[in-house]
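[job 0412] stage=complex_fold ligand=5-aminoimidazole ribonucleotide status=START
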Amino acid sequence: MTPKIMIILGSGSDIAIAEKSMDILEKLEIPYSLKIASAHRTPNLIREIVKQGTDAGIEVFIGIAGLAAHLPGAIAAYTPRPVIGVPVDVKTGGIDALQSIVQMPYPSPIATVGIDRGDNAAILAAQFIALHDEEIRQRIINLRKEYAAKVKKSNEDIIQKIDKKFIQNDFLRIKDLEISKPKIEDDICTKNRDAEVVVIVGRQTDMATAKKVTVILDRLKISHDTKVVCPIRSNRKFTNYVKCMKNAKIFIGISSNSSQVTGGIVGLTDRPVIGVPCTNENGDDYMLTTVSMPPGVPVATVGINNGKNAAVLAGEILSISNPEIVGLLDKLKDKKINL
Ligand code: AIR
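[job 0412] stage=complex_fold status=DONE, emitting structure tokens
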């Protein structure tokens, strides 16, 4: 059986993080391959396994490394396939590895997940493949239900056992904390419901970054729809819009203050979510709050304000089943070099 995913570790010492990825892929029944190759100690080995892996039919690569973690970037140099990066906490709490992985130049994005989040890397890889494999999509939906069930169960196992005088929990209308689905209200649905990529911007000032996304999506001939809507200030509109765009393959969230946009989208869809962290007026950026998602709900994070890389990543994901986009991506890369 040809594996669909190749996991590469920078060192044998990263194995504990790879175990998290493997546990998820075993659960989702997706064949994968596991190799060790260092960007600095064995660069030629990376080139060989990535090129041969791509030729053999690998659809997604996962690079797991710590310290100056150039491994995912090195993988991206040798394949048109999407590359997911997992920073490992070896020193500085993993911040060194995170910055090395996420801050990639255009047009070479790495879909970065949180520090040590091998589990989320595997879920994200599965989401990419699920775009053309309905069976895997169903398995992801079921896996996400398990994460939701754990939250419900904690209410029984932890909260109900608390023996305090003034705690009072039996006053809500919902019994047994049943989770209901939000209703779609057709009146504020967009006309462009069949867009392949949806770009959601939390505030008007981040439209400049959104524009970078849509310019590149146009060049890649990928249909898209953009809306400025904040999940906190206009929750009903936000929920409605995401639900309305249920035919979309990929969501891109342009995330400013505390990254509520990407966090909000990921809870409402099983499709891959790409996050572009933005900088605010004070110069603070929101990379950590975008990337540091809990297990079960990954956000594929690209570099700060790097809307162009978000679009390239969307192109790479869609190109797994659409070779025409691979050709268009190659043109983008050549053009950049010729500049
Ligand atoms: N590493 C290996 N080559 C380049 C890098 N950045 C990383 C490994 C591991 C860390 O360095 O991914 O997380 C320490 O590796 P080791 O082999 O010394 O334990």
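The chain has two domains: 5-130, 186-338.
[job 0412] exit 0
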